[in-house]
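The material for today's practical consists of a large collection of protein records. An example says more than a description, so a record of this kind follows:
***
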Amino acid sequence: MNNLDMSVNIAGISLKNPIVTASGTFGNGWEISRYYDLSELGAVTSKAITLSPKQGNPPPRIAETDSGVLNSVGLQNSGIEFFLKYDLPNLRRYDTKVIANISGNTIEENCEIAKRLGGEVDFIELNISCPNVKQGGVAFGTDPRIVYDITGRVREHCSVPLIVKLSPNVTDIVEIAVAAQKGGANALSLINTLLGMKIDVNTRKPILANNTGGLSGPAVKPVAVRMVWQVAKNVDLPIIGMGGIMSGEDAAEFILAGASAVAVGTANLVTPTAALDIKKQFVQYLVKNKIKNVKDIIGAVIAN
């Protein structure tokens, strides 16, 4: 369909199509370019960027589960200086938007990372699912007051649109989303991983060295779709939906629920061409259903 309009708008920035990659599942993006041209995607999201290099958690830190994956990688990365000097120039070789996922141990660290990134990237995605060391290790994203505070503080140091990535490990996702909007978020992404655990029944020990980890993959998709739908009805911000997207129809489901774009995560661990494959399948869905403009189906679910 030559007249198919795949473009979407996230916080005033146009993406050529709604398919992006999820943080932590795609390296820093450019490594996957050996398999296909990253210009095919709407945006590429970096793995979490911390102020200093981080080794992450000890192994084992990945465990397969029924219809999903548990991970406790622990945000292993080379730090912001390496990202700016090596990863970002490689990403900028492609005609796609760059989303920098950031994760500091404190509000101040997040502000510093955002400030140093400046306008070098197209978006900053604030990971609020990580522990706030000043609050006894409680995740930033589980308390609406902290969500409001960290969003507002980072927004002051952010010269590009700020996406706040929401944790599903809360009682009321809408309350958290509203707090992020009031704090100054320009967009939201959800969901991050659900906290899970797997035990070896023979050794009686947890599979992961960290005992628990984040569950992703098809197992979390119904929860993710529900949360995107709830948030879309209650906030006036564009949403990047994610959580178990393995096909073009999965992508369509999130967009119908209210997402303006979708992020492919765990599927990238199955095959490096997953995001491109899902984009092609999504185009097939649009053609089959005679949809000429993606924006026409954002939030178009007909609820009972």
Observations:
- Helices lie at 80-91, 107-117, 144-156, 173-183, 221-234, 248-257, 267-270, 274-288.
- The longest strand covers residues 97-102.
- Residues 9 and 15 are 6 Å apart (CA to CA).
